[in-house]
Structure formats: C-alpha cells, structure tokens
Amino acid sequence: MSGAIALEGLDLAALLCSRVCHDLISPVGAIANGLEVMEEGKDEETSKFAMDLIKKSARTASNKLQFCRIAFGAAGSAGAQIDTGDAEKVTRGLMEDEKTKVAWNLPRVLLAKNRVKLLLNMMLLAAQAIPRGGQLTVDPIGEGENLGFKVSATGTNAKILATTPPLLGGDAGSEPLNAHHIQPFYAGLLAQACGMTAAMAMEGDAVVVTAQ
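Now predict its structure.
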C-alpha cells in the first residue's frame, strides 16, 4: 500500500493517550464547572442543578475509563484472557442510553485479551458511525477461541468516514496520522495481532464492522 503507516511504539502510545484524554476532557471539565457553580451558592435550585451535573459527568467519566481500561490498556498480563461478559458491561455503560441501544448476541466466554480489545474498538467504530444514536448489534462469527465478530450500526444518516477503512488496513493515504485517526489504525493492529482481518463497509443502510 502506497500510504502504509510506519509508526514507532512511543508515537503510538502518545497518540492513544491523546485520544483517551480527548474523550475525558468533556466530562471532567463539566465536573469542574459544576463545582464552580456550587461554590457560588446563589440558591438551592442552582446548587441542585450543579450537583446533578457533577453526578452525571462523574458517571460518564467513570464509564469512559472502565471502557478504555480494556479497549486500550494492559488489562492483565501478556497472556491474559478477558470475559466477554465484562466487555458487554463496559460497552453498555459507555454506549447505551436513551438514544442508543445495544443488542449483544455473543456467548459469555473467556477470550484472548487482544481479541476482546479488538471487539471493543470495533464497537467504537460502529458507534461513531451513528452520531445521532440508533441500534448497535453484535453477532458472533464462528465459535470457540477463534470467535470472530460482526458489529452492525443502524441509525439516522449512518455513514463511514472515508479515511476509516484504509486505516483499518494500515494505510493512512494522504492524511497525517493524528489522535483522531489513531483509533481505527489501532483496531487494525489488534486484528493483525489476532491473525484476523478487520473491515468496515455499508450494507444497505447499516454500517457493518467485521473481524474474522
């Protein structure tokens, strides 16, 4: 591939850290804003609003951290396995709300760490394709230790960024690799490490991410 990416380990770590920090800035900033409002203490209604904001933002930050710990972090030793039930829990905590629902059709099994990390990164790619919310559906491909995944996303104006499929294959094209692009590239690295091929394409009105 003409745009094949060569990335040093330190650069990969730095870009992933930037991505995680970017995701956490909003809820942590909202907590700080809520505390400032409470310090002003103008009236009971304002204080209640501030407390509700702090609680909601703290819950959001906690859900993001729990998800990122598995999706991007070490999550155990090099040969560790992760329960797909834990993956389902952190996925629902992060992605399921009044606008987006998750249908999790995978069996509850222990899988190699990188395979579960790949699944969570596939969930991120699918969720990003439906910014207005919708339905995320996870189905198995195959079974056992070689279990693969199919994640379908349906929602209003579901679409795939043109840069994402090449990045999954390790091709940056003409775009510079930055914190916004690192996540699909990292998902592709995980697929390679698992001996799998990851792809993302439209199937009718649905965005489908597969790894097998």
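The helical segments are 9-40, 44-71, 84-95, 113-128, 164-168, 182-193.
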